[in-house]
Each structure stands twice: as structure tokens, then as C-alpha cells.
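Slide 14.
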Amino acid sequence: MTGLEKIISKIETESKDNCEKIINQAKSQSEEIINKAQSEASAKYSKIISDAKKEAERKIAVAKSSAETITRTKYLEVRNAVVNDIISASYEEIENFDDEKYWKLLLKLCLKNFETGECVMYLNQRDLTRLPADFEDRINSEIYENGAVQVSKKSIDIENGFILDYGDYEINCTLKAVFDDKLEELRDLLSKHLFSSQT
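Slide 15: predicted structure.
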């Protein structure tokens, strides 16, 4: 082999060695880049999945809370409607009492609401026409030690019940006034009685 051939062979060998080194370095670098990219992609994927799960859990919790609120609101609406219906039905039933029950009720109302002194009881026209003859006497026999009630022969514009007029002030004993006065108490009692197991 001539000197020139030796030089060329040496250059080829060195070139080949350098090429292999460069290729090996490139492979190593590319593997590092790929591994790094895969690691970053895996971390991003895990974060995306984790964030998506958290967001889904948050949305489920919000939806559940919203559903519970709606359910609770609807339940209260239905419960109030039931209580109101019972109170309305009770009021109508009392309004439609036969004469005996009606006047017994008015007697009890008068005795419960009567205050010491003398007063005038005012009724509506319908009740004046069906007033029991002994009604005034029955009241006064119960309260004679504390005063007296005189049933007026003049009617007033009320639906039912009566007004006790003491001159300086009046006591409203119409059924509506009595119901309105006891409305919240009635609501509470009915709610506890009907829905105690649900509260």
C-alpha cells in the first residue's frame, strides 16, 4: 500500500469513527429528548386526568347540592300547601257548623275573650235572625261576677262570629280574626303532627 493509500485509509477510518460517534451521540440525545417528552407528556396527562376528575367531582357536588336545595324547597312548598289546605278546610267546616255547634262555639269564644266590664256584642244579619233566645242569658250566667254582655239588635257587616264593643276598644271575635291570630300556632302544630317523622 502506497503512502497516499495509507493516508486515505486513515482518513476513511477516522471519518467512519467520527460518524459513528456523531450518530451515537445523536441517538443518545434523541433518546433523552424522547424520554423527556414522554415523561412530560405523562405528567401532563396525569394532571389533565386529575384536574378533570376534580372538576367532575366539583360539578357533581354542585349538582347534588342544587338538587337537595330544590327537593327541600319543593318539600316545604308541598308541606305548606297541605297545612294551608287543612286550615282552609277546617275554617270552612266551622263556617258550615249546624246551629247548635255554631252557637256553642260562639259561647266559648265569648267566654274566652270577655274582659271585665260591660260590653255590646255585634253579630251579622244572618246570625241575628237565628240567634238562640237564651244565648245572651247563657253568656251572662257565666260572667255575671265580672260584668255583662248585651247582644245588639243592630247587625254589622262581618262574615261570622262577633265583635265585643267596650266603648273605648273592640275585641274582634270573627272566625277569620281568631284563625289569623292563631295561624302560626296552627301551622306549627299541624306541621309537627303531620310531618314530625320527616323533620
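Speaker note: Strands lie at 117-122, 147-151, 162-165, 170-173.
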